[in-house]
């Protein structure tokens, strides 16, 4: 009886806390509505008003994680606040974001992770279409994959930066878990074909060699497309993630079949607005150097001399001439930082061309 009394008291306490949380969220939403009214008034006066501030959201989430005392983990707590902020922002101005579709892709999952469920997401069939939607002003932002920890750079994204004048506003990292999925009519003992995106097939190569060495592997445009195909077939399976499984009503036969347990993909948020520094930033640039001995050394020396941490460097063929190349470089810091300005000025003196793609907060979640 004592245990029942204690349980009832705890339930009453939880109900009371839920009421307080509800009131506080409502109060926050009302503040968001007031913010929207102030910004709309500024627009009416011909002033500039920015509804989405990536640096502001990053600062809020970092502060939440720093102040969190548990028992919920930092990322769990930050995800809760991400959704609160997403819903409140939608009261100001619903964000529209394009991503590499169709629905259920990892790009779709990255879009939801970064912007929250309240974002108006728009699937596109190719990476360059995401860039074009943002450049045309049809959406506010785009979400594109840029590198995978197993398979390396996504060259279509890098090449699109050479063709479009857009700004990187943020990044999001997504742990990639692949599952072998089947439909309700699939005869698992007679699987003769496995669909997935080429990169996903590559990320699960060893597992497939060990478990389905004689089964045909068919590369398709996306994991979501693979899941869609499998839904209506009895002798095939798909490699895809949780979101695709849920959207297309598939069940996992095997879970987490990726060859590397730390398999992750990094996505970039592209838009048209510069992002102020928060003190924990990254910068991405494109550099074209003269084709001469020691060109790469000359490019890297200023970073070393000024103690700037390089996080990635990739090479792609230039569009301006045969056997010429451009370098994509990511490094720690904001382009407004004095040390970074010194480095960029030095590179500008030696480079054929230098373009700052953007400075943005490091991924928080």
What is the rounded distance between the termini?
A: 44 Å
Strand content: 25-35%
Order of helices and strands: HHHEHEHEEHEEEHHEHEHEEEHEEHE
Radius of gyration: 24 Å
Please give the number of β-strands: 15
Layout: helices, strands, pairs:
Blueprint: H1 2-44, H2 54-67, H3 74-92, E1 96-100, H4 106-115, E2 120-124, H5 127-136, E3 141-148, E4 152-153, H6 155-163, E5 167-175, E6 179-182, E7 193-197, H7 198-203, H8 205-211, E8 216-220, H9 223-231, E9 236-240, H10 242-248, E10 251-254, E11 264-271, E12 281-289, H11 295-305, E13 310-317, E14 325-332, H12 338-350, E15 351-361
Parallel strand pairs: 1-2, 1-3, 7-8, 7-9
Antiparallel strand pairs: 3-4, 3-11, 5-11, 6-9, 6-10, 12-14, 12-15, 13-14
Task: Describe, in plain words, how this protein is organized in 3D.
- Its EC number is 4.2.1.51, 5.4.99.5.
- The chain has 365 residues and is α/β, with parallel strands linked by helices.
- It folds into 4 domains: 24-91, Up-down Bundle (Chorismate Mutase Domain, subunit A); 95-175, D-Maltodextrin-Binding Protein, domain 2 (3-Layer(aba) Sandwich), CATH 3.40.190.10; 179-254, Periplasmic binding protein-like II (D-Maltodextrin-Binding Protein, domain 2); 281-361, ACT domain (Alpha-Beta Plaits, 2-Layer Sandwich), CATH 3.30.70.260.
- The chain is 43% helix and 26% strand.
- It contains 12 helices and 15 strands.
- Strands 1, 2, 3, 4, 5 and 11 form a 6-stranded mixed beta sheet that branches.
- A hairpin with a 3-residue loop joins strand 3 and strand 4 (152-153).
- It is globular and about 75 Å long.
């Amino acid at each position: 009886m004592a245990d029942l009394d204690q349980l009832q008291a705890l339930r009453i306490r939880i109900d009371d806390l839920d009421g307080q949380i509800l009131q506080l969220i409502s109060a926050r939403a009302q503040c968001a509505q007031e913010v929207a009214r102030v910004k709309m008034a500024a627009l009416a006066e011909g002033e500039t008003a920015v509804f989405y501030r990536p640096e502001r959201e990053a600062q809020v989430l970092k502060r939440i994680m720093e102040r969190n005392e548990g028992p919920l983990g930092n990322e769990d707590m930050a995800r809760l606040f991400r959704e609160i902020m997403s819903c409140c922002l939608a009261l100001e101005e619903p964000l529209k974001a394009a991503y590499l579709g169709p629905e259920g892709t990892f790009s779709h999952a990255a879009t939801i992770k970064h912007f929250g469920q309240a974002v108006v997401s728009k699937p596109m069939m190719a990476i360059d279409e995401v860039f074009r939607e943002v450049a045309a002003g049809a959406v506010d932002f785009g979400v594109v994959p840029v590198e995978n920890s197993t398979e390396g750079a996504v060259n279509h994204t890098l090449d699109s930066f050479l063709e479009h004048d857009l700004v990187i506003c943020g990044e999001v990292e997504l742990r990639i878990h692949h599952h072998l999925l089947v439909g309700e009519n699939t005869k698992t003992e007679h699987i003769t074909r496995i669909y997935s995106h080429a990169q996903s097939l590559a990320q699960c190569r060893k597992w497939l060699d060990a478990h389905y060495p004689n089964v045909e592997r068919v590369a398709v445009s996306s994991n979501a497309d693979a899941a869609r195909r499998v839904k209506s077939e009895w002798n095939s399976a798909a490699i895809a993630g949780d979101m695709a499984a849920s959207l297309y009503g598939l069940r996992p036969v095997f879970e987490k079949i990726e060859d590397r347990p730390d398999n992750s993909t990094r996505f970039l948020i592209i838009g048209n607005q510069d992002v102020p520094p928060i003190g924990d930033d990254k910068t991405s640039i494109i550099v074209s150097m003269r084709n001469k001995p020691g060109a790469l050394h000359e490019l890297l020396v200023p970073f070393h001399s000024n103690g700037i941490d390089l996080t990635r460097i990739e090479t792609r063929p230039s569009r301006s001439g045969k056997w010429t190349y451009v370098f994509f470089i990511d490094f720690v810091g904001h382009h407004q930082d004095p040390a970074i300005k010194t480095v960029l000025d030095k590179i500008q003196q030696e480079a054929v061309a230098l373009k700052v793609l953007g400075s943005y907060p490091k991924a928080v979640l």
